[in-house]
Each structure stands twice: as C-alpha cells, then as structure tokens.
Amino acid sequence: MANQPRSPFLLSPISLALALGTSIAWAQQAPVPPAADAAAPAGDAANADTAAGGAARAHKHKLDVVVVTGNPLSQRELAAPVQALSGDALTLKRGASLGDTLDGLAGVGSTYFGPNSNRPTMRGLDGDRVRMLSNSGASVDASSLSFDHALPVDPLVLTRVEVLRGAAALQYGGNAIGGVVNAIDNRIPRLAQPGLNGVAEVRLGGAASERGGAVVLDGGSNAFAWHVDAADRRADDQRVPRFTSEDGTSTHVRNSDAHGRSGAVGGSLLFSQGYAGVSVEDYHNEYGVTVEPDVRIQMQRQRLATAGEWRDPLPGLARVTWQFASSRYKHQEVEGSGEIGTVFESDGKDGRVEATHAAFQGRWGTVQGVLGWQWEQSDFSALGEEALVPGTRTRGNALFLIEQFKSGPWSLQAGGRAERITVASTGGDQERFGDPMTRRFSPKSLSLSGAYELGHGFSLSSNLSSSQRAPTFYELFANGVHVASGAYEVGDVNLGLERAKAVDLGLHWKQGEAKWSLQVYQTRFSNYIALDASGRDVELVGEDGGTETVPEYLYRGVRARMHGIELEGRQPLPAVAGWGLTLGTTLDLVRGTNRDTGEPLPRLAPVRASLSLQAERGPWLIQAELRGAKRQDRVPALDTPTAGYGILRLNIARHFDIGNLDAMWYLKLDNLVNKLAYNAGSVQTIRELTPLPGRSLFAGLQVKF
To answer: Contact at 8 Å (CB) between 190 and 46?
Structure first.
C-alpha cells in the first residue's frame, strides 16, 4: 500500500490553519452566541443534515439550506440547473461509488467501468470536462486519466452532493464545461455543535453482497467544534442476469469485488463572525479490474485541508472565505502473481480565496459580487509496463470575478475567469516520450446568466458562456498501450486550447411542493479534443516474443456539437387512505456530433426517462420507480449499438425511535424483473463484460443521535 505521508505534507497546511484561526479569533475578541441563535454561515449546506440530531430529528425538522456549488453570493434561488441530494434522499440513493449514486439524475450519467470504477458524466461529457470537487476544493486523483481508475470518495460519509450543469459551472474553469460534482461532508465544521451529535449506519446485501457501515461524530463547545468519521465497505463479485461474453455464460461480473475504508478527523475554531478549521483524511480502496481478470488496484489518498470564513471583516466587504488542501494519491496495479505492474502517483495542492463585497443599492437595483483567486499544482508519475504517459508537472493560477444585478423580477449575473496554466513533461522512457517539454496556456472563460420571474410560480432562465480549456498532460504526452480502452493512445504536444460556446434556456414552475423544470442546451466546440481512431494498427511484442496488434487512437482537435433536453418534475397528488402521494419524472436526451466527420461522438447516453411514485404516511416511506433507456444506435463506426431496457426499483423505509434517538430502517429492491441491461456510456472494451446489476435486496439501518 501507499507510504504514509511525510511530515512536510502535514505541517504547512496545519500551521496555516492554526495561524489563520488564532489570528482571526484573537482579532474578534467576541463571545460566540449559543448554537440555537448562531446565524449559519452563508452556503453552509453541509451542516444542515449532520447537525440535526437529538430533538431536532432529520425527518421531523427540515433546515433551510443554501446551495453551495456555483453560488458564491449565497442566493436562496438559483437560475442555474442545480441538483442536490441530502438527508433521506441521499441515504436511499447512495451507491457504492459517486457515479452510481448520481446516475439517473436528469442529464447525469456514469462511465460505468464495472461497479468499482464509475465516474459521473454530464450532458454527454466526461473526463476532464466534468470537475470533481471535495467541499468545493479540487479532488486529486487519476480518475480522469483512465476509466478503470476509481474516485477516492466514500459516499457513506457524505452529507450532501450537489451537481451543477452547464454554463454556470465556469466559475470553476474551462474543465467544468460539462458540469461540477461537489461531494460535501462536515470534516471541517462550520457551526457550533455543543454536546455530541452523530450518525451510524450499517448496510447489507445488494447485487454485490455488500457489508458496510459508517460512523460520523460531531461535537464540541461554542468556541470549538470537532468531527470524526470512519467507514468500511466490502463487496463480492457483482451478480447480474445471465449473459454471454468472451468467457462464456455467467451470472457474475468477473473480478469486481472490492474492499474500501476511510477515516477522517477535523476541528474548527469558532468566533462570532466565522470559523477557521482543518481536517485530515485517509482513504483506501482495493478492487478488481474487470477488463483484466487477474489484476487488482490498491489505492490510497491522503488529504489535509483547511478552510475558513470571516464575515463583515471590513466596511463594504461582506465575507472572505478561503480553503487550501494538500493531497497525496497513489495506486498500484498488482498482477495475479503478486508482481506490481504499474504505479500511479499524484501529489497535488490547491487553494481558493473569495472576497464578496457588500450589496450596493442603486437607482435601478442591487449589485453584489465576488472576486476570487484559485491556485493548483500537481505532480504526476506513472512507472511500470503499462505507463502510457511520462512524469508531468501541472501548475495553474486563475482570477475570476462574478457580479450580480437584481431588480424586481429580473436577475442578471456576469462572470469572467482568466487562467495561466503550465503543463510540463519531466521525461522518462526516452524512446517513447522524448525530451522533457513544457507547454503554457492562457485560457479565458466568460459567462452571462439571467432569470426573470413571470409570476404564478413561473420563471425563465438563460445561461450563455464562452469557455477555453487547456489540454491535459495525457492529451499532450500519451504514447502507449491503454489496457482499459484496448488501444494504443498517442497525444499531440501541439494541441491548442479547447474552445466552446454554450447556451442553455430554462422554464421553471414551483408552487408549494410542486416543482417542474425544462432545460434545453447547445454547446459548439470550435476545437474539441477528441480521441479518434487513426485507422492504423500497432504491433506490440511481448516478453515471450509473441506479437499482438491493437488499434491506434490519436488525440486531436475537431469541431463538435452537443445539444439536448432535460426535464424534471415533482407533483404532489391527492392523498389516498391517508397516504401522501408524489409523482416524479425525469427525461433527458443528448446528441453529440463530430462536425468534421459527421459521426456521432462516442459513449453518449441514449434517451432516458424515469417515472416514480412516492407514498408517505406517518413514519413510513415507499418509493417505486421505473427507469428506462432507449436503444442507442447513434454510435461511431467502430462502436456497437446498445439495447434499450427498463428497470423497476422499490424502496421501503420507516422512521422509529430508539429511546431519544431517531432511527430509520430501509429496504431497497433493485431490478425486480432481473432485466439484462448495459450502460451505453461505458467504453466498448468493458461494456459486454459488465451488465448492470441484477435482481437484489439491500437492507440498512441508520441511527442519528
């Protein structure tokens, strides 16, 4: 497994956190108000669920939360297409991975490289075009490099997940043109939490015979808050309906078992106008790689983060927030013989500071804005026989400004971001990767959003953007066999910026608990960095002298277009026999075309739709959902169509009391008719080996205190 972090990794962020916290707390010299009266820091969604313990039980008291992601001005209502999962909804939706947890939300899919490697996709875009965040900070890993690399995120300890799609995501840079996924926990507490609060959960069953559990504890005083969490999950090979592959017929996905575990501690100094905190976390995951039946991945990520907020520090300045993190990621691919084949390592640091000026009331309306700075650096290496990229260094700095104008029913928001990015190869295999080389880029992004309240619950929204993304190190320097995709991939050191212009329009209606939203969007790329087949084959010579031929794929810029529709709805129905009923539906459609060749872009989800009915009565909750996908036959010439499917799911949950504790047990029944189904978003080399899960029963118990 990965080595333990060295002391420099820990000391500098801890020192920074203590210095910031001590100096600010000393400067304030003010008593902290009791937790019941303390104003929640703006955007503090993470504490809303974890702090609701004891008498304030989650199913009896709903706290008003503000969306964090893409909302630096802490608005209660956003025009941008934002989705959030928290509370019971997150508990019942939570899967083995973040991609599995979010799959099925309108516009959100997954790469699904088996049950363990499952990264979210948005509006047909994946990889470095979907920004993965941890508490609004960068998530350092290798998941965008290869489909078989898992995200180092344990959904069991998350309190909230937010998804931001479309042009509004450009606050986080050009590599968020597809969208942003923000995994939120309470590892750096933001509120006073006197006494002891916590959540404990155990989970059993499912298609992978999962055995898992987590404990999350929060406590402290009015001047200090602390957090501890730990989680462990074991799973066997996933059961699926009987299918036929290169191995013959089977009812299990080969080499798909896993064992993941994580732990974290954190604490914050609290003062009357904010907080300053630090956290340390450690995540391990060992799992099988389905495409290689005798290969296992041993992964570890260690992360140390500090964050804080100071409200009203100076006249005219409403808030200053900051966060810094240092992460060390390592995973090694272990052959069946026990030999380590390839070792991937990534050391990354990132920081973000935002200053929000106070609202100015003018003749025509109110103006408020935020100025921010973001800094990132990453050192990556891949050593071994399957290393397809050299060692690299990536450095980035960005300044961004967002201003919002609001007058009556009108709301306008304009934003701009300028970046300086350096990507350098440090050499390695001279024959394949050549001499060290450095590329410098200056991407710029602009966005304009608007919303208008029509009355009677209706509103319109629009988002326009122009974005630029610097190519990644693997798009520039790759030169080797990529086992996960079964191809020889070649980068292009002369690639320029990826450039896109996007627009999305929305019509929304909300009245009481009823809520409907329709979004249409289009993104045009003047330079889309695609991985396309060259039409040539590469002959490889093995250690035993044998040869193997694999297709060659090249990274190159093409013109492309993406467009689609997303519909979400939630409609309460008349009660029946005391049961409160709610109808839910989603529909999404995405089309992507390579405008240079006329071919469809690869790995796009087909038309998908879901229809659900939720019934609530007292402590009982019952959910039935039918989710379907149309046949996907709009595929590139070298891909194959994917059959459509329909899957029926049923959830049953009941809240009850254990003394003064709030508890909930739940049952999840998946794929009730045992339908054989495949994910069209999977890369072709894995799709036929990994059907979606078969019929299964999953049980869990959650206790809050």
So the answer is: yes
Instruction: State the virtual CA torsion across 317, 323, 324, 330 in degrees, nearest 10.
Output: -160
* Residue 208: CB atoms within 10 Å: 24
Q: How confident is the model at residue 625 (pLDDT cuts 50, 70, 90)?
A: very high
- Across 6-25, average pLDDT: 39
- Report the sign of the C-alpha dihedral through residues 120, 122, 127, 130, in that order: negative
State the DSSP code for 156: G
What value, to the nearest 5°, has the Cα angle with vertex 247 and ends 259 and 243?
Answer: 80
User: Across all residues in the chain, what is the average pLDDT?
Assistant: 85
The Cα–Cα gap between 533 and 555 comes to 9
Alpha helices in 414-496 (DSSP H): 430-433, 473-477
CA angle 81, 85, 91 (to 5 degrees): 160
pLDDT of residue 467: 92
163, 120, 165: which is closest to 144 by C-alpha?
120
Residues above pLDDT 90, as percent of the chain? 58
Lowest mean pLDDT among 38-42, 349-353, 394-398, 601-605: 38-42
Return d(Cα 390, Cα 424) in angstroms, integer.
10
> Distance between alpha carbon 292 and the CA centroid of its chain, in Å?
26
Q: What is the 3-state secondary structure (H, E, C) of 651-700?
A: EEEEEEEECCEEEEEEEEEECCCCCCCCCCCCCHHHHCCCCCCCCEEEEE
**Residues 654-691 pLDDT 10s:** 999 998 899 999 999 999 999 999 999 888 878 989 99
pLDDT at 490: 92
Q: Do 388 and 553 meet the contact criterion of CB atoms below 8 Å apart?
A: no
Q: CA 492 from chain center: how many Å?
A: 28
pTM: 0.85
Q: What are the b/e assignments for 153-186, b being 16+ CB within 10 Å? A: bbbbbbbbbbbbbbbbbbbbbbbbbbbbbbbbbb
CATH no. of 83-211+223-704: 2.40.170.20
Whether the Cβ atoms of residue 213 and residue 157 lie closer than 8 Å to each other: no
C-alpha pair distances (Å), 682 with each of 195, 342, 467, 526: 47, 23, 27, 26
Q: 518: Cβ–Cβ under 8 A, 6 or more apart, which residues?
A: 506, 507, 508, 565, 566, 567
Q: Distance (Å, rounded) from C-alpha 514 to C-alpha 457?
A: 10
> 38: which 2 tokens?
């303390």
Domain boundaries, the chain: 83-211+223-704
